[in-house]
Write a structure and sequence with these properties.
heterodimer, A: about 110 residues, mainly beta, 6-stranded mixed sheet, globular, B: about 110 residues, 7-stranded mixed sheet, 4-stranded antiparallel sheet
Chain lengths: ~110, ~110
Amino acid sequence: GDSVTQMEGPVTLSEEAFLTINCTYTATGYPSLFWYVQYPGEGLQLLLKATKADDKGSNKGFEATYRKETTSFHLEKGSVQVSDSAVYFCALGFSGGYNKLIFGAGTRLAVHP
Amino acid sequence: NAGVTQTPKFQVLKTGQSMTLQCAQDMNHEYMSWYRQDPGMGLRLIHYSVGAGITDQGEVPNGYNVSRSTTEDFPLRLLSAAPSQTSVYFCASSFAGGENEQYFGPGTRLTVT
């Protein structure tokens, strides 16, 4: 079945370090791919998305590229800040009347000054 | 716009009790969903709805009921609470199917003793 695998956390970085959070997926068909972020005590909010192969989603300095050949959607940021500390979820979703996202387990990021 | 609202924020139940988690959205979204979030497992879909009067089961529907009598509201009912239902519950809504951004409520933390 369809699934998302992302790297286990926690990921601990110093401020201004480079961030990569790996995400790979298994899907029948052609899903859209998402990164959602959950700040402490809050619900999830969309960080970025890509809807087809080779699309790059970007927002707030974060980027991820939809790689169909490697079934991956890795999240990157060149210089993290303390305010980026959160849990990041990779997810996939399908069009055509469905209303479900399939989430990875989440990766907690802690950024220290 | 208030977005997606959920009540209550916290709830403690005894085994066997029933209760309803409320969810409302003011964005005129057709699609609404309920997820539960458990440590190390990401979010799992409980039930979803693609419009008023239409609901369907997700990945983990047992022990939960839903109904959708209006576009705005999508309550989740726990019929007879069990300790395994201790979790954080999120309601989400979207304009259309799984390829679109979902907007999440702030969550309800439920403990069943």
